[in-house]
Amino acid sequence: MAEAREEAAMEICLITGTSTGIGHATALHLARQGYKVYATMRNTAKAGPLQDLAKAENLNLVIDSLDVTDNQSMADCVARIIAVEGRIDILINNAGLSNSSPVETYPEDEHRTLFEANYFGPVKLTQAVLPGMRERQHGAIINISSLLGQIAWANQAAYCASKFAMEAFSEA
Q1: Phi, psi angles (nearest 5°) of residue 92
Q2: Which residues are catalytically annotated?
Q3: Which of 63, 72, 74, 87 has the smallest number of CB atoms closer than 10 Å to its CB?
Q4: Residues 123-160: pLDDT tens digits?
Q5: 46 with 66: CB under 8 angstroms?
């Protein structure tokens, strides 16, 4: 058990969308297991609860800014982590957007924004970290999806389509 903790302590983990929900819980869980966690979110003003818990528990968790709809934001965040750590061992693509609207009333630009967050952002981050993982022959990429990436629901067309795309990307 101690050996697993020592190995985990060396693992550098980047998680997107950690201000609430699954990302928040995952960041805390991995930090508690001894991983060094870079917990990212679009708006770091929302980091208070996560930061407070990490500080109270003396966790190895760093809050950083990352917007999965902004290529420069993603590139900058990955560069900052690699500058400090030399690598990223685990990428957890969790951030995303959702919607609920009939297809005929949902504007095209909002479809595109949803795809940027739920598909293209995770693809771009994967492309940024995968070469280093391949070079080291070590690493993991975890894509958090949704049941709606396997079955479609009414009034969820854009969200379901983006999650179906993420499922296919993950399998390929």
Answers
A1: -115, 105
A2: 19, 145, 159, 163
A3: 72
A4: 999 999 999 999 999 999 999 986 665 777 687 788 88
A5: no
Between the alpha carbon of residue 51 and those of residues 3, 112, 118, 131, 170, the distances in Å are 27, 32, 25, 31, 30
Q: Which amino acid is at 121?
A: G
63-86: pLDDT as tens digits: 999 999 999 999 999 999 999 999
Instruction: Give the domain ranges of the chain.
Output: 2-171
CATH for 2-171 is: 3.40.50.720
- Cα–Cα separations (whole angstroms), residue 120 to 32, 44, 162: 30, 22, 9
d(CA 115, CA 46): 23
Neighbours of 106 (CB within 10 A): 18
3-state secondary structure 36-90: EEEEEECCHHHCHHHHHHHHHCCCCEEEEECCCCCHHHHHHHHHHHHHHHCCCCE
Contact 26, 15 (CB under 8 A): yes
In DSSP terms, which residues pair with 140 in a beta bridge?
90
- pTM of the predicted model as reported, rounded to 2 decimal places: 0.89
Integer Cα distance of 100 and 58 in angstroms: 39
